[in-house]
């Protein structure tokens, strides 16, 4: 009779599927519960304020008045357009510059980082005063030159390019940090050299090699830029433009319920846009 060989059992290692300690799961639930209360309770109270009126009971009148409120659609479209233009501009400025420094002049990375993070130390009010002074002085100095029409065009109320330029500077530190984190996890030099050796042009390298590998970092930079532009009030208000946050503050003086309802809707809109950008930034499997 043939002997039957038995395979010895292998003892499970320490990393075998062990149940997590109950204490860890309890603390995780406590932390998540506190965070949920921190975010949801204020929103619930705000929502209750918009739907409840003393003597009238519950009503959704504050939300039905949003679309008919004068200035709602133009201000919202203006802020969304400014956000889109700011995202495109800041990505076009920072990503090629960061690649050029990483590939051609690595010693300039500290200088580039210093320039990119410099707007964090400039107070917004000082920044706005400087912009206003430059615009007034430039209008007078360039009155007899062809550049006067250009300076007037960038201040057009229908789409103020000057706000896009201001928002690019404000969002530059956040976009730089997000893109820098994405570029640190990939071997940029090897990818670029391989693509160039295969005959790819520089635009092809940037769009078809680098961008797909840092898609999540680009999405993060877009998140931060979108949130800042849709919530920024100081620059637009002091320069005299009617963006969505400025319009909300203007309406709040006449109708408190409408302004709170608009704040809730804008917050939900930002979340929806962020989720959309997040889905677009995920890699396809």
TrEMBL record:
<feature type="transmembrane region" description="Helical">
    <location>
        <begin position="217"/>
        <end position="240"/>
    </location>
</feature>
<dbReference type="GO" id="GO:0005886">
    <property type="term" value="C:plasma membrane"/>
</dbReference>
<dbReference type="Pfam" id="PF00528">
    <property type="entry name" value="BPD_transp_1"/>
</dbReference>
<keyword id="KW-0472">Membrane</keyword>
<dbReference type="GO" id="GO:0055085">
    <property type="term" value="P:transmembrane transport"/>
</dbReference>
<dbReference type="InterPro" id="IPR035906">
    <property type="entry name" value="MetI-like_sf"/>
</dbReference>
<keyword id="KW-0813">Transport</keyword>
<feature type="transmembrane region" description="Helical">
    <location>
        <begin position="114"/>
        <end position="138"/>
    </location>
</feature>
<keyword id="KW-0812">Transmembrane</keyword>
<feature type="domain" description="ABC transmembrane type-1">
    <location>
        <begin position="76"/>
        <end position="277"/>
    </location>
</feature>
<feature type="transmembrane region" description="Helical">
    <location>
        <begin position="71"/>
        <end position="93"/>
    </location>
</feature>
<protein>
    <submittedName>
        <fullName>ABC transporter permease</fullName>
    </submittedName>
</protein>
<keyword id="KW-1133">Transmembrane helix</keyword>
<keyword id="KW-1003">Cell membrane</keyword>
<feature type="transmembrane region" description="Helical">
    <location>
        <begin position="158"/>
        <end position="176"/>
    </location>
</feature>
<dbReference type="InterPro" id="IPR000515">
    <property type="entry name" value="MetI-like"/>
</dbReference>
<feature type="transmembrane region" description="Helical">
    <location>
        <begin position="260"/>
        <end position="280"/>
    </location>
</feature>
<keyword id="KW-0997">Cell inner membrane</keyword>
<feature type="transmembrane region" description="Helical">
    <location>
        <begin position="26"/>
        <end position="51"/>
    </location>
</feature>
<comment type="similarity">
    <text>Belongs to the binding-protein-dependent transport system permease family.</text>
</comment>
